[in-house]
Design brief:
Blueprint: E1 13-15, H1 25-33, E2 39-40, H2 47-58, E3 66-67, H3 75-83, E4 89-92, H4 95-103, E5 108-112, E6 118-119, H5 126-137, E7 143-147, H6 153-161, E8 166-169, H7 180-186, E9 194-197, E10 209-212, H8 215-220, E11 235-241, E12 244-249, E13 261-262, H9 284-305, E14 306-308, E15 314-316
Parallel strand pairs: 1-8, 2-3, 4-5, 5-7, 7-8
Antiparallel strand pairs: 6-10, 9-10, 11-12, 11-13, 14-15
Helix pairs in contact: 1-2, 4-5, 6-9
């Protein structure tokens, strides 16, 4: 289909970086091998662990993939990356942030809508954000990717119709390093069952995140502002993250991975408003292929349903 070949991938599917290690080497490689681009969840300020994750991923694929580093990307950093053959994808949630990235000449802008799961950086839908960014870019060689609750091929086609060249998604991959209990819960909730909250990162970012409205979250979501995810909270579990033991306290922003023990049901579970359309946890290859095949089918059907007659007026076939 060739929606986003500009960045070296085959089809325009980008794996969202999830959790501290949920988007690990196995999942990133699986997406890359299916023709998409996987983004590693790189550990913050842990150079050796990041290098190991990159090397482990390269053992599993020879296709392009990326690693996520938090922070801004001013033009001098982007230029240095380009000199070393590295392309920069930057996620934004507003037109103002997109303008900065366009000025910095990044290679790709991921336009995240407020309906996305996990950390949310804007307050408008990608449906409103994508076309504005596309218009700002004009004829510059910058790819736009839409992100936020895109869990079926119709969303892929919608993003393309608004000028995006691809989509960024997470949540439902079988190869993710998420705890099985977390994956099971994704099949039980709908978009109405999510909530945008800062409860799980008040001590640090105080930024909104979209989460499943689990019984635990329902109980605590109205907690006073002075209730924070700090050392005063009781220990509810433990995880091995990037080789080190991490103690998990109540309201931690870390999601449960495959090593997590303890009160998994009382831990944060990130998910976007598209979660109600997730009916199964499938392998990455199956998900990518279903999106491509589904999008091609929709576009072909639209082409047969809508046609242009001689005077340039669109006609609709109701047959």
């Amino acid at each position: 289909m060739g929606f986003a070949r500009a960045l070296g991938w085959d089809n325009g599917i980008v794996l969202a970086p999830m959790g501290a290690d949920i988007s690990g080497p196995k999942l990133v490689a699986a997406v890359a091998n299916a023709g998409g681009v996987g983004l590693l969840s790189s550990p913050v300020n842990m150079y050796d662990a990041t290098l190991k994750a990159i090397r482990d991923t390269k053992k599993l694929t020879d296709k392009p993939f990326g690693a996520v580093f938090w922070g801004d990307y001013p033009k001098e950093i982007v230029d240095e990356a380009h000199k070393n053959g590295v392309q920069i994808l930057h996620q934004v949630g507003s037109v103002a942030d997109a303008e900065k990235e366009i000025a910095a000449s990044v290679d790709c802008i991921i336009a995240q809508g407020v309906e996305a799961g996990g950390h949310v950086i804007g307050n408008v839908s990608w449906h409103a954000l994508v076309p504005r960014i596309v218009d700002l870019i004009g004829d510059k060689n910058i790819t736009v990717v839409a992100a936020g609750a895109i869990v079926y091929p119709r969303g892929f086609v919608g993003a393309i119709s608004l000028g995006a060249k691809g989509i960024c998604m997470g949540t439902s991959y079988k190869e993710s390093y998420a705890h099985d209990y977390y994956k099971e819960q994704l099949l039980k909730y709908t978009g109405e069952d999510t909530d945008c909250t800062d409860l799980y990162n008040r001590e640090s970012l105080r930024a909104p995140t979209r989460v499943l409205n689990t019984p635990f979250h329902q109980k605590w979501k109205s907690a006073p502002e002075d209730v924070e995810n700090n050392a005063e909270q009781p220990i509810i579990g433990c995880s091995i993250i990037h080789g080190g033991e991490t103690v998990l306290r109540r309201f931690t922003g870390e999601v449960a991975n495959k090593t997590t023990t303890g009160e998994v049901e009382n831990m944060v579970m990130y998910a976007g408003q598209g979660v109600g359309h997730v009916n199964d946890i499938l392998p990455a290859g199956d998900i990518v292929n279903s999106f491509i095949e589904g999008a091609e089918k929709i576009i072909k059907e639209l082409g047969s349903k809508y046609r242009t007659i001689d005077d340039g007026v669109a006609a609709v076939s109701l047959a």
